[in-house]
Amino acid sequence: MSFTRRQILGGLAGLAVVGLGAGGASRYWLGRTGPGEGHDYELIAAPLDVELVPGFKTPAWAFGATAPGTELRVRQGDWLRVRFINRLPVETTIHWHGIRLPLEMDGVPYVSQLPVKPGEYFDYNFRVPDAGSYWYHPHVSSSEELGRGLVGPLIIEERDPTGFAHERVVSLKSWHVDEQGAFTDFSVTREAAREGTAGRLSTINGVPQGVIQLPAGQVTRVRILNLDNTVTYRLNLPGAEAMIYALDGNPVKPRALGKDYWLGPGMRICLAIKAPAAGEELALRNGPVRLGTFRSVDSNDAPGEWPPELPANPVAEPDLANAEKLNFNFEWVGSMSVTAKGKPPSLWQINGQAWDITDKTCADRPIAKLEKGKSYIFELKNMTQYQHPIHLHGMSFKVIASNRKDVIPYFTDTYLLGRNERARVALVADNPGVWMFHCHVIDHMETGLMAAIEVS
Ligand code: C2O
Ligand code: CU
Ligand code: CU
Hints:
The structure is a single chain. With 456 residues, the chain is mostly beta strands. It has three domains: 7-157, Cupredoxins -  blue copper proteins (Immunoglobulin-like); 166-297, Cupredoxins -  blue copper proteins (Immunoglobulin-like, Sandwich); 320-455, Immunoglobulin-like (Sandwich). Strand 2 and strand 3 (58-63) form a beta hairpin. The longest helix has 6 residues, at 142-147. Helices cover 3% and strands 41% of the residues. The protein is built from three helices and 31 strands. The protein is globular, with a radius of gyration of 21 Å. It has helices at 142-147, 189-192, 442-446; strands at 7-9, 41-50, 58-63, 72-75, 79-86, 95-97, 121-127, 132-137, 152-157, 166-175, 201-204, 210-215, 219-226, 233-236, 241-247, 250-256, 261-263, 268-274, 281-286, 289-297, 324-332, 348-350, 368-370, 375-382, 388-392, 397-402, 410-412, 414-417, 422-428, 433-439, 450-455. The structure holds CU-O-CU linkage and copper (II) ion (2 copies).
């Protein structure tokens, strides 16, 4: 058999598929022979006009022909091989949020790679060790690039079939647009110094008040991804039969969704929802505000049962008894001191150090140096009045304690650290590299709340 295994994703002309599988039916490339032989996807970033406000165009930037970007899928343990082509007017990179991968593939400019210039391409090539819901986004001029739509879901399927017969992906994003669909400021200093500059128009899968169909009586796996720059959603689904199956990239023992789940920027939650009778609806809400709707539609299948819990990922268990403790204090630096022209203000610090996104050498001064293979406990202390979704690249960590709530320990890549909260997370420093450690409120990250952690 000979056929082209490449899929070309997106571009201005829309989705084009090369070779067999026109119609885009085959999600998986077949007959792969191993790493190092070209690529399986071509992913193009390019300008794309979208209609968020009826009758008006918004000049978005998109991965593939949609904003949020094309969903990428790969099976756990397989290689993801993407030729990324930059057709934007600006330089960029792709970071694969939550994936434990080699540093060269991590998409951090001047640490992992040089930025990809307009017209250039870069081959991302790595094996995905963990199943779960992840996402991808640039790590260059993030307020603007993510704000304009360069965010997309990356789904890693379990090696073996799970008990779920149905699945939906729900990407949350609020857009910084006015009533005519024109972009407004992605970051305003006054807001960056508080909870972050929020967009005005919320969408699910790029559609304001989007509707997602669920088969009536069936259990559907619903992966909800917060791909927003700044907003923490207080997710709730009044009246729904919904169970939590995974948090961020990792399975948890299934438990009821409960009242509000606080999903910070960059975070994900995987639910099982048992859809009500056909014709009924469930509101997906942020606090009291409806973001979108799940609508039950006729299904011929027998009523579904709750699947068993998902298999754990192969993340190393930290040795708490022998772990070294490290403190990380997250502070607000109130002074909006005047900075050099073109430099964002410095508003936030980790252990007294502010990251300067205009200084390419910051990563040369890691805030902590970890010894490869050793276990560590990070004591995260939020000394501010705002919450921060604290994210680490390259490794997953286990949340073990908080002074604000009862914690059922779980592995994650992002922990929403509440106002004045102190939390403890633990990890095995098993991935060598210089890894970004930052708040995922993008304006916070760009005004100081980032650091590098070295593992060697
Ligand atoms: Cu979504 Cu530096 O990460
Ligand atoms: Cu990340
Ligand atoms: Cu923050």
